[in-house]
């Protein structure tokens, strides 16, 4: 066996040992495709933990802020459900239970002593895609060559989230190179879709998509350049946002194709409610990330803008639908969903117009050429350290 397989096996073994043995369960056979209901029937979670993990982000934050639920209880509940999710669909990379519970305990002690929350995300467990560095942890980004590389400091976003009171508690799977709309690598293997385990959850933030869909995390952070938040959110039935570039700090995180700044990757939230998307974005923006990351946009949160105060407060809006881009015609189910959306918008009193694509093939070809410029060299340099194979379908196109 080539040496890189030994490195991968050793890393997987360390991952397994990081899971509390009492949280391992007997999972359904592979023939059971839809496993979304399994976490609540497996017997690991108590009735209260099921209630906690089924609660939306905005309500979770309210209960944490008033002391009805403790950060330790909420973190433990989601951690147990995350471990069950991992056993079902292989969605996690880094698991650090003791560290997360220690952080939750600190937050609870602060609340007991002061009666105040640390920040707007006080006590909320957060999952992070495995390119967002956390001090003292490995960040492999799906590369065997990066096993053993421990972060010396947090990515700026992690510092911001901790300042807001959040509890980072797991990191999630992605494809080798990040630049692909699926989630498979030579270290952790393939992540599957919890609604149908014979299908993909999408990518490149597929670990986040599968985990949040199974309610193993109330809110995850993915990255997106060409669909890597939007694809898994669509495949897994989640609410999410690909923010504008610079709205969420990226400094200190890892990525492929460093220096490619024609089409930027961004971080954004993935969750089970619109309230969760707002809670994340408002907390991050109000933390003034531009003071820690000079490329972050210096723009404060504006509640009036969120509520569309200058646009009729959300009434009588105009929406555009692009039925196809002149290159690819959507399959009938996609077309049907667009028609259902149009009917719902018109019923609500909004105007819907057809969006006519302009030079979409040229735009797509130009973007692909930008991503492909030296991409093969980038991947080969990284993998050459251990000789791991580059997964061939990742070489020519990027989405991460």
UniProtKB/TrEMBL annotation:
The keyword Ribosomal protein does not apply. Keywords: Hydrolase. The keyword Hydrolase applies. Belongs to the amidase family. It comes from the Eukaryota. Its EC number is 3.5.1.4. It catalyses: a monocarboxylic acid amide + H2O = a monocarboxylate + NH4(+). Pfam families: Amidase. Residues 73-378 form the Amidase domain. The lineage of its organism: Eukaryota, Fungi, Dikarya, Basidiomycota, Agaricomycotina. GO terms for molecular function: amidase activity. This is amidase.
């Amino acid at each position: 066996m080539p040496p890189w397989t030994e490195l991968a096996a050793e890393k997987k073994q360390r991952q397994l040992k990081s899971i509390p043995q009492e949280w391992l369960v007997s999972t359904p056979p592979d023939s059971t495709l839809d496993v979304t209901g399994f976490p609540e029937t497996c017997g690991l979670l108590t009735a209260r933990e099921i209630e906690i993990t089924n609660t939306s982000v905005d309500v979770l934050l309210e209960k944490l802020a008033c002391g009805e639920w403790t950060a330790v209880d909420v973190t433990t509940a989601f951690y147990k459900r995350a471990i069950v999710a991992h056993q079902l669909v292989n969605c996690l990379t880094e698991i650090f239970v003791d560290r997360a519970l220690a952080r939750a305990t600190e937050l609870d002690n602060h609340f007991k002593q002061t009666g105040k929350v640390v920040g707007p995300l006080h006590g909320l467990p957060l999952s992070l895609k495995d390119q967002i560095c956390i001090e003292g942890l490995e960040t492999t980004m799906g590369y065997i060559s990066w096993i053993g590389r421990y972060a010396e400091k947090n990515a700026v976003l992690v510092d911001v989230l901790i300042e807001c009171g959040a509890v980072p508690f797991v990191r999630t799977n992605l494809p080798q190179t990040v630049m692909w709309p699926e989630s498979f690598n030579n270290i952790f293997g393939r992540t599957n879709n919890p609604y149908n385990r014979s299908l993909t959850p999408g990518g490149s933030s597929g670990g986040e998509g599968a985990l949040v869909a199974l309610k193993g995390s109330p809110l995850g952070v993915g990255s997106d350049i060409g669909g890597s938040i939007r694809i898994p959110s669509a495949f897994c039935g989640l609410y999410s946002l690909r923010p504008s570039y610079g709205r969420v700090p990226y400094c200190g995180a890892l990525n492929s194709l460093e220096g490619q700044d024609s089409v930027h990757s961004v971080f954004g939230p993935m969750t089970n409610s619109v309230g969760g998307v707002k809670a994340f974005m408002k907390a991050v923006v109000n933390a003034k990330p531009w003071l820690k990351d000079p490329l972050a946009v210096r723009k404060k949160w504006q509640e009036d803008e969120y509520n569309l105060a200058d646009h009729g407060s959300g009434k009588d809006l105009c929406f555009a639908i692009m039925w196809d881009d002149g290159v690819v015609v959507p399959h009938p189910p996609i077309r049907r969903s667009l028609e259902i959306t149009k009917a719902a918008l018109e019923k609500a009193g909004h105007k819907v117009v057809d969006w006519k694509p302009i030079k979409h093939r040229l735009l797509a070809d130009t973007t692909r050429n930008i991503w492909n410029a030296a991409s093969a060299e980038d991947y080969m340099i990284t993998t050459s350290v251990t000789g791991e194979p580059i997964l061939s379908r990742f070489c020519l196109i990027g989405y991460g």
